[in-house]
Design goal:
The protein is mostly helical. It is built from 4 helices and no strands. It has helices at about 1-15, 35-55, 60-65, 70-100. The longest helix has about 30 residues, at about 70-100.
Length: about 110
């Protein structure tokens, strides 16, 4: 009986550890030295990570498989929320740097003078 509980505990920990969205750093040590093009690429990457994390919150093949063990779904949702917040924070930090350097922020409207 103890072996069964131990097995279930190991399976639970393994499934919760399968939460897949990548949580990125909101600020990286060299961001201030990046060129406009590099900042825009970083911004696009952060946007991609955010969209991938948002996709993990829906019904996916991995989440459907995790229905057999619901704590894994909770772990995925929590990880996805953390990844979304981190990506959004990264985008804000990059947008601030781009504004300081007079770079165009992807997706923003800048009036023509």
């Amino acid at each position: 009986m103890k072996n069964t509980y131990l097995f279930l505990l190991v399976v639970a920990a393994s499934l919760i550890g399968c939460a897949s969205p990548t949580v990125i750093q909101s600020m990286k040590p060299g961001d201030a030295g990046l060129s406009c093009a590099q900042l825009q690429n970083e911004y696009s990457d952060a946007d991609r990570f955010k969209k991938e994390a948002e996709g993990e919150k829906g019904v996916t093949g991995g989440n459907a498989a995790r229905l057999l063990f619901w704590p894994a779904i909770i772990g995925t949702y929590m990880n996805a929320n953390e990844a979304i917040a981190a990506a959004e924070s990264r985008k804000v930090n990059l947008a601030n740097l781009m504004n300081q350097k007079s770079c165009q922020v992807p997706g923003s409207y800048q009036s023509q003078k």
